[in-house]
Every structure is written in C-alpha cells, then in structure tokens.
Amino acid sequence: MPELPEVETVRRGLQPVLEGAVLTRVEQRRADLRFPFPERFVERLTGQRVERLERRAKYILVRLGSGETLLMHLGMTGRFTVALPLAETSVQPGEFRHAAGGLPAHDHVVLHTAAGATVTYNDARRFGYMDLIADAGFAEHPLIRDVGIEPLGPDLTPAFLARAARGKTADTKAFLMDQRIVCGLGNIYVCETLFRAGLSPTRAAGRLATSTGKPRAGADRLVPVIRAVLEEAIAAGGSTLRDYAHTDGSLGYFQKTFAVYDREGEACVRPGCTGIVKRRVQANRSTFYCPNCQRD
DNA sequence: AAAAGCCCCTGGACGC
DNA sequence: TGCGTCCAGGGGCTTT
C-alpha cells in the first residue's frame, strides 16, 4: 500500500531500530524480487553501520558506513516487520502469515542488528526491489536520475506544474501519477487530490498552463491540495506508528477513510453535494471521482 | 517524444 | 468447501 505517506511512515518506524545500528547478519532468501538482488548483496551489507535512514520518492534509502546506499522499493505489498530483542516488546506490524513448512511466507530479507533487533522484509507479490548504489554518482543512478521533485519540498509550485504540463494531452490523472514530474503520489492520493481540487481526472494536463506555460487556476489549486493530502496522511500514519512502537503491534499502516477512493456508489462527502462516487478505469487503474464536483 | 497497452506476482473477495 | 473471475496502493517495457 505504499505511496509517499506510507513509505515515510515505514521510514520513521525503521529509523529508531536501524539508525546507528550495525548489521551483524543478513539473510537473503531468494535470488530476486522484481529484479535480481545486486551482486554480493549479503556481503556488502554484513558488518556495515547504518548512518541514516532517508526517503526519496517512494524509496527508502539506508545510508551505510561503506559509502553505499541500500535502496528499497516496497512495490505493492512490501512490508517490514520489526522484532526487538526482548520478547515482550517484539512487534509484528501487519499480518504475519506462516507457510505450511514453517518459515513465514514471503519473508525475503532479514536484517539482524548488533543490538539484537531484526527487521524482516515481506513482499507477497514481489513488485518491490532492493539495490546497492555507491554514494558517488548516486544522483545519476538510473533508478534515481529521472525521479521528479518532492511534493513536500520547496520545488512544488504552480509555476513548476504549469511548465511541466504545458502542451500535454495526457489526462491530469496520468500527469500526477507520473513519477518523473512530481514523485510520491500514487493511485489513492491522486484520486483524493483531484477530488479536493475539483478537477476532472480526464481533463487534459495541458490545461493547467497557458499557451506560454504560465499557471492557470488548476495549477494554483493543486499545489496546496497535494501538500495537504500527503501531510494529513503522514500525520495519520505517524499516530498509528506511535501505537505500534510502544504497545500492541497493531500497525497495518495508515487506515483512514478516503473521500472518493474505493467508495464507488457512495454519496459524495462534500456537504450539499448530491453526487455519487463513480469508478472508471484509466491506464488499467481504477479512478474514483465525484462527477458532480469534478465536472471539468 | 509522448501516450497507450501489456506484463510482472500472489492473495483476498465474491459469485456460483 | 471448492473453483473461477476480478481486483489490488507499484512501475518497467514495448508498441504506436
């Protein structure tokens, strides 16, 4: 379920366990996820100190003492389980399924720290992946090079959106989903953003800009809405995470009710609106929207 | 170059 | 209870 807010929530959950930790043992239980693991994956991680945990787009970046960075993408079903040294405090965020043979199903990578904690990566569909990238030249790496601006940073402005959208005939939904322009938004938050901004998902992206690339009203509305949607989701995930870190282990990510996502057939939540949320398919993904609030 | 399709993979929900 | 179908928050690759 990882879009930017979920990835950031996971990063914050892993941070107290991994930052400053030394990886004493690493288990890699299969040769590939979406892509093959890099050469000598286990050897290059074992013995390393984790300097910092960062996030870029939907990637979690583990900065290592060796001058390499472990890059992790969660795909659709990637999850981490953290087990702390004391049995009483061990927590298992998310479901913990066991295969018939004994080993938990789909636990592909396990990191053991010198302090006795374990961090387990579980990914049923294996759309996630991991890579090890030298810090020198990191920005030019193919996985990083073409990633667009961070939506919560200073680069997201109406002028930026207008310049990027100018002349584009693709619909606004595809424009916001495109990680090369603004990163971090996925299907849920694009639907929520378009609803809150009152923009039709099928509207041509080029209409965010004038013919000379200056922002029009849609671009002005999108910027604060994108920020608000993501920040609210992070705040909700963060509160869930505090519970998980200190008490019963009931993480399961951020579960908030959405305004339109997965609400086909339900009444629009906007006060006074009599619209019914519709679902349509764009680029093989479901789009949820209110045909009344998002006419154009 | 941009846009549209297809594909990767497993599991859960649902209908019969 | 079992089986078939559809759907899922990711994005890369190929075709047009």
How are the SSEs placed, and which strands pair?
Blueprint: H1 4-18, E1 23-28, H2 41-45, E2 50-56, E3 59-64, E4 68-73, E5 78-83, E6 107-113, E7 118-123, E8 129-134, H3 142-145, H4 158-165, H5 172-177, H6 187-197, H7 217-246, E9 278-282, E10 285-289
Antiparallel strand pairs: 1-6, 2-3, 3-4, 4-8, 5-7, 6-7, 9-10
Helix pairs in contact: 1-7, 4-7, 6-7
The structure holds a DNA duplex (16 and 16 nucleotides).
Low-confidence spans: 88-100, 241-254
Q: Helical proportion? A: 25-40%
Strand neighbour order, sheet with most strands: 1-6-7-5
Structural class by helix and strand composition:
alpha+beta
Distance between the first and last residues' Cα? 29 Å
| Average of pLDDT | 89
Helix tally equals 7
**Sheet with most strands:** 4 strands, antiparallel
What is the CA-based Rg, rounded? 21 Å
Strand composition percent: 15-25%
Helix and strand succession? HEHEEEEEEEHHHHHEE
Shape: elongated
Counted beta strands: 10
Characteristic terms for this protein:
alpha+beta; elongated; DNA-binding; 4-stranded antiparallel β-sheet; 27% helix; 296 residues
Write up this protein.
The protein contains seven helices and ten strands. About 9% of the residues have low confidence. The protein has 296 residues and is of the alpha+beta class. The strands form three sheets. Strands 1-6-7-5 form a four-stranded antiparallel sheet. It is elongated. α1 runs parallel beside α7, α4 packs across α7 and α6 packs across α7. β9 and β10 form a beta hairpin. The chain binds a DNA duplex (16 and 16 nucleotides) through α6.
